[in-house]
Amino acid sequence: MGVVILLLALLVLVSIVGNVVRGRRTSTPGTPPRVHPLAADPEAYDPLRIGVGDIVTYAGVDHVVRGTINFDQEGFRWHEHLLDGPTGRRRLTVEYDEGELEMTLWTRCEGTGLEPGKDVVLDNCVYRQVKSGAVRFTAGGATGTASSGSMDYADYTTADKTRLLAFERWAKTASWEVSTVCAVTRGELRVIHAGSLD
Q1: CA distance 183 to 140
Q2: 114 three-state secondary structure
Q3: pLDDT tens digits along 58-115
């Protein structure tokens, strides 16, 4: 019995010594590295303050906000930011719907030839229209749109609501732009506002 107790005590001692040695290996002396105050807390940025020149990081990839479009549909307002990064261009939509923050990332689908209808098919998925209409907008920065005007839109989803598809047309004579849309949470994005870089 005494031998068992002695062996247990020895194992505990070896474990404690191992933890201390590992802790010393991972820590380095000196001052800690400088960390941007917004980097430590993804909740620190203000989604409604995102604008031209801000840096938006998603899935480890940095994007710069090149332009912003502000929409107003009979008093309901939302913002769409054009993001430019190494993997191409995306758009980030920010809105508050009944007090709840909703953010979505849009990726444009090139060369689909699709136009709005009752149902559309893309990549073997069937999408059904859930909403369509027209909305007034104003734009700033490099958006590729007029500085103001009206945009036609049509929103689609799959039957299980897991995939979203959006159509936009910036002029009656223009072609429809098609984008896949995915919801993102505030914590999935890191944003450094342009004014905080000074």
Answers
A1: 24
A2: coil
A3: 999 999 999 999 999 988 999 999 999 998 899 999 999 888 999 999 999 998 999 9
Question: Considering just the CA atoms, what is the radius of gyration of the chain in Å?
Answer: 25
φ, ψ of residue 180 to 5 degrees: the values are -85, 150
Contacts of 53 (CB under 8 A, 6+ apart): 64, 65, 194
The upper half-sphere exposure of residue 46, i.e. CA atoms within 13 Å in the direction of its Cβ, equals 7
Residue count of the chain, please give it. 198
Sign of the alpha-carbon dihedral angle for 84, 70, 152, 173: negative
Measured CA to CA in angstroms, residue 74 lies from 85, 113, 168 at distances of: 33, 31, 18
Structural contact between residues 127 and 156, judged by C-beta atoms closer than 8 angstroms: yes
Per the structure block, which two tokens stand in for 180?
């896949």
What the block records as the tokens of 140 is 């700033």
Question: Which two structure tokens, joined as six digits, stand for 126?
Answer: 């069937």
Structure tokens at 28: 């380095």
pTM more than 0.90: no
Cβ pair 52, 63 in contact under 8 A = no
**Residue 39 near residue 190 (C-beta atoms within 8 A):** yes
Cβ neighbours of residue 16 closer than 8 Å, sequence gap 6 or more: none
